[in-house]
């Protein structure tokens, strides 16, 4: 096993501008011996490195294919800090560093044979898109798929055509909410938790994957528990400052858990008594 | 006939010579700039002869006495931490090549074999904690593997010490290669490892007298009579006592300077940063000690989870005495008292814990 602190080179094949400040990088690992890193699972993350600037943790979005049907790694990033803005300035053909995969992803095997309920808020949809894509790629392994996505403003919605495509698939429910909706928003105007009440859930055979701001995840989990979903069937993807990604640097501690290593995806009962506590 | 285990003070240099002969660099305590610091050492005369100390909340003073001993102080600001977990080090280098490709090279230091003389029990216990935390960190482990540890039981705890109540001192309990108990005429030795045994075999030892053994025992019993003790509190509850008024009061005094985390022998946080060369073709990726008192510690894309001193102090204390138990099966505190002495405003975490513990009983 190589030193987990040492990056490998990744070539930017393509760069997609999703919104004003959100972009997706399609990456190819240039070293043949590093292709094992493409075994990254939905919910896990990589550390992306911009030469001379630094590293940031970015969750895995998808593995797609290039023209030669070779695997391509996709990461969606919001340009909001020093490193993400520097990454945003890169063009196809340029190189970055990458190390990972890190952390624990969604409980894919546990979800098999069950209904999936994916509840996301804002850019929380990026790590959750990976599990939705996985479920559709292995459609026979899962029952009904519920997709609930909330955004602050209707203009923030990413991958609208993707959601519209999923909405047309059999045995699938797609519900969208915007806190603030511009004219022409065809979906719900309000909070995600209100939408959850409308879901035709079979609580005893549903696994919930939730990703978004912590108050939204907490409210969603409690709402689903009121709808008889067992707490242990609810999984949350957590986010904290991550620098080493190996459980050493201490920044991502959430109580006793190192989110980079023990998470980022964790069962709700593990988090329940700490979510919402000030300063944790 | 008991084995020879007594090294007269006049023969302490034979231990130094033996270690040098076996290829070790020597590091040991010296009185430098008004404090006891671990520095490279050549001969026993450099040890802090007759130096004692006063430690109080926010206070650290050395006193020169005619005491013949060399280890009659409790500790200095450094534990073993800088020797294993470097305050700043390069993890890897990257190069931007002419064709636009990037290459990465790891840089892991392999220090020469180093013998540390005068290690304290509290610091051995903290080292054991860091050994577990950094178990799969190659940078730490390379440095750790270079160390030979020669402990000296602490016979002069400071007023800030409470290692007896954490169970980590004042004598060296475990994790040493060789341990010394200092008496006026010399040192009683105990072996802690195979490497320590080979040292003992090569030293000009005598057999300790019954009087020596009694002196050592009495001295250890006296050293255990420390003024401070860890108060009673419920570790698992600390994190849920976030609204206790004690936090507000301590935050009013705390400067958020991070001295406590720097001198703490178990604090492990570090930040990573990039140091690019001016010509733009190469860059070094470094790590350096960080503190949960720093503004950036809880930063995440435009948001800080702990924007104020209250939240940061609470993070430090609830982690050290609470979450640590869940992470590593015991508290992260080994009772060295450094955070009390080196706090510029003299905050005593034990007082905060006392208040929190009192709430448990109510």
From TrEMBL, chain A:
InterPro entries: Cyt_c3_hydrogenase_gsu (IPR012165), Dihydroorotate_DH_Fe-S-bd (IPR019480), FAD-bd_FR_type (IPR017927), FNR_nucleotide-bd (IPR039261), OxRdtase_FAD/NAD-bd (IPR001433), PyrK_electron_transfer (IPR050353), Riboflavin_synthase-like_b-brl (IPR017938). CDD domains: sulfite_reductase_like. Signal peptide: none annotated. Pfam families: DHODB_Fe-S_bind, NAD_binding_1. SUPFAM superfamilies: Ferredoxin reductase-like, C-terminal NADP-linked domain (SSF52343), Riboflavin synthase domain-like (SSF63380). This is FAD/NAD(P)-binding protein. It comes from the Bacteria. Residues 5-108 form the FAD-binding FR-type domain.
From TrEMBL, chain B:
The keyword Nucleotidyltransferase does not apply. The keyword Iron-sulfur applies. Keywords: Iron, Iron-sulfur, Metal-binding. It comes from Marinobacterium maritimum. It comes from the Bacteria. InterPro entries: 4Fe4S_Fe-S-bd (IPR017896), 4Fe4S_Fe_S_CS (IPR017900), Helical_ferredxn (IPR009051). This is 4Fe-4S dicluster domain-containing protein. Residues 245-275, 324-353 form the 4Fe-4S ferredoxin-type domain.
């Amino acid at each position: 096993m190589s030193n987990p602190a040492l990056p490998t080179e990744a070539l930017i094949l393509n760069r997609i501008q999703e919104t004003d400040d959100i972009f997706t990088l399609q990456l190819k690992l240039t070293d043949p011996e590093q292709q094992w890193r493409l075994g990254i699972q939905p919910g896990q993350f990589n550390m992306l490195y911009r030469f001379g600037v630094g590293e940031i943790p970015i969750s895995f979005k998808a593995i797609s294919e290039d023209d030669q049907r070779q695997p391509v790694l996709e990461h969606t990033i919001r340009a909001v800090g020093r490193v993400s803005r520097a990454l945003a300035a890169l063009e196809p053909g340029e190189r970055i560093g990458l190390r990972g995969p890190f952390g624990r992803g969604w409980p894919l095997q546990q979800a098999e044979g069950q209904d999936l309920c994916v509840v996301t808020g804002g850019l929380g949809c990026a790590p959750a898109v990976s599990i939705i894509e996985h479920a559709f790629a292995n459609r026979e392994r899962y029952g009904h798929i519920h997709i609930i996505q909330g955004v602050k403003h209707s203009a923030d919605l990413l991958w609208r055509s993707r959601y519209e495509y999923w909405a047309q698939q059999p045995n699938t429910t797609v519900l969208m909410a915007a806190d603030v909706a511009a004219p022409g928003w065809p979906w719900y105007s309000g909070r995600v938790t209100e939408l959850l009440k409308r879901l035709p859930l079979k609580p005893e055979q549903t696994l919930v994957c939730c990703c978004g701001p912590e108050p939204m995840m907490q409210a969603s989990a409690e709402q689903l528990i009121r709808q008889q979903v067992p707490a242990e069937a609810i999984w949350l993807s957590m986010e904290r400052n991550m620098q080493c990604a190996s459980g050493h640097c201490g920044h991502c501690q959430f109580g006793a858990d190192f989110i980079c290593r023990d998470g980022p995806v964790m069962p709700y009962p593990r988090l329940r008594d700490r979510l919402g506590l000030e300063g944790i | 006939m008991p084995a020879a285990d007594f090294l007269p003070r006049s023969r302490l240099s034979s231990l130094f010579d033996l270690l040098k002969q076996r290829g070790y660099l020597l590091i040991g305590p010296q009185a430098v700039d008004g404090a006891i610091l671990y520095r490279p050492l050549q001969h026993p005369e450099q040890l802090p002869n007759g130096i004692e100390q006063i430690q109080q909340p926010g206070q650290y003073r050395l006193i020169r006495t005619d005491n013949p001993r060399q280890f009659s102080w409790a500790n200095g600001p450094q534990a073993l931490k800088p020797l294993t977990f470097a305050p700043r080090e390069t993890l890897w280098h990257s190069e931007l090549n002419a064709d636009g490709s990037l290459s990465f090279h790891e840089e892991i230091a392999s220090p020469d074999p180093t013998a540390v003389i005068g290690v304290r029990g509290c610091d051995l216990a903290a080292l054991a904690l860091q050994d577990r935390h950094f178990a799969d960190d190659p940078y730490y482990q390379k440095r750790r593997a270079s160390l030979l540890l020669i402990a000296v039981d602490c016979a002069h705890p400071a007023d800030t010490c409470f290692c007896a109540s954490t169970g980590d001192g004042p004598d060296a309990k475990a994790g040493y290669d060789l341990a010394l108990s200092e008496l006026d005429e010399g040192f009683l030795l105990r072996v802690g490892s195979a490497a320590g045994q080979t040292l003992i075999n090569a030293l000009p030892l005598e057999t300790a007298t019954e009087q020596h053994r009694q002196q050592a025992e009495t001295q250890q019993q006296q050293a255990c009579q420390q003024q401070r003790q860890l108060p009673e509190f419920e570790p698992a509850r600390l994190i849920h006592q976030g609204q206790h008024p004690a936090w507000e009061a301590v935050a009013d005094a705390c400067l958020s300077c991070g001295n406590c985390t720097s001198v703490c022998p178990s604090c492990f946080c570090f930040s990573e940063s990039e140091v690019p060369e001016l010509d733009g073709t190469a860059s070094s990726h470094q790590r350096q000690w960080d503190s949960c008192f720093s503004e950036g510690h809880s930063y995440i894309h435009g948001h800080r989870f702990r924007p104020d001193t209250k939240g940061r102090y609470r993070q430090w204390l609830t982690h050290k005495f609470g979450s640590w138990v869940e992470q590593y099966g015991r508290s992260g505190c080994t009772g060295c008292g450094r955070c009390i002495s080196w706090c510029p405003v003299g905050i005593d975490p034990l007082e905060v814990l006392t208040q929190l513990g009192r709430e448990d009983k109510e």
